[in-house]
């Protein structure tokens, strides 16, 4: 089993460089349904107004990222919603426990740093059955939007449900 390490970008410019370079270097693989300027804003939002977790493999290479921001709730509650803006794992680590460990680190981050976040959102291209299956394991499909650039799904979960899923999966991975 390949050991992975997880780190928060925070104020570390070198980690933000790794985050950005991985996503931009693999941009074609992301297969996002939006035009580049929209995708670029989702990739960049965590750098400007959020944070990100990086996954490093045993060789120290960035194997994946999860960038996120916080939004106010519909009732005006500050930082009530945590929205994943970018989630990517290199193909060669997708079958490993890296994804579950990344979600587990994300869950721990939310519990410690953002206890007021009651909702976690993930957006995904609606034509990706693999992503629907994946997010369906720990989220509920809230809606599918038809946009000029294509259809996108909105998935939501709670921090408690995410923690339950990652804890259960971590013991079987």
Report on this model:
This protein has 173 residues and is of the alpha+beta class. Helices cover 40% and strands 31% of the residues. The protein has six helices and seven strands; from the N terminus they run E-H-H-H-E-E-E-H-E-H-E-E-H. It has helices at 13-25, 27-30, 36-49, 98-113, 129-136, 159-172, and strands spanning 5-8, 50-56, 62-71, 81-89, 119-125, 140-147, 150-157. A seven-stranded mixed beta sheet has the order 1-2-3-4-5-7-6, with helices on both faces. A hairpin with a 5-residue loop joins strand 2 and strand 3 (62-71). The model has no long low-confidence stretch (mean pLDDT 90).
Keywords:
173 residues; alpha+beta; 7 strands; 31% strand; globular
Largest sheet: 7 strands, mixed
Structural class: alpha+beta
As a percent range, the share of strand residues is 25-35%
| Number of discrete helical segments | 6
* Helix content bin: 25-40%
Q: Which whole number gives the mean pLDDT?
A: 90
How would the global form be characterised? globular
**In order across it, which strands form the biggest sheet?**
1-2-3-4-5-7-6
**Helix/strand order, N-terminal first:** EHHHEEEHEHEEH
| Rg, Cα atoms, Å | 15 Å
| Low confidence ranges | none
> What's the end-to-end separation, in Å?
10 Å
Oligomerization state of this entry? single chain
Query: What is the strand tally?
Result: 7
């Amino acid at each position: 089993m390949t050991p992975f390490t997880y780190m928060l970008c925070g104020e570390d410019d070198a980690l933000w460089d790794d985050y950005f370079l991985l996503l931009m270097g693999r941009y074609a693989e992301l297969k996002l349904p939006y035009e580049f300027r929209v995708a670029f804003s989702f990739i960049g939002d965590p750098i400007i107004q959020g944070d990100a977790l990086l996954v490093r493999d045993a060789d120290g290479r960035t194997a994946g990222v999860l960038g996120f921001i916080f939004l106010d709730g519909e009732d005006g509650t500050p930082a009530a919603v945590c929205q994943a803006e970018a989630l990517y794992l290199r193909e060669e680590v997708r079958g490993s426990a890296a994804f579950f460990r990344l979600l587990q680190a994300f869950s721990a981050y939310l519990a410690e740093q953002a206890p007021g976040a009651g909702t976690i959102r993930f957006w995904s291209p609606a034509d990706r059955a693999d992503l629907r299956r994946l997010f369906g394991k720990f989220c509920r499909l809230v809606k599918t939007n038809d946009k000029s650039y294509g259809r996108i799904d909105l998935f939501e979960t709670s921090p408690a449900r995410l923690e339950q899923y990652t804890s259960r999966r971590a013991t079987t991975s």
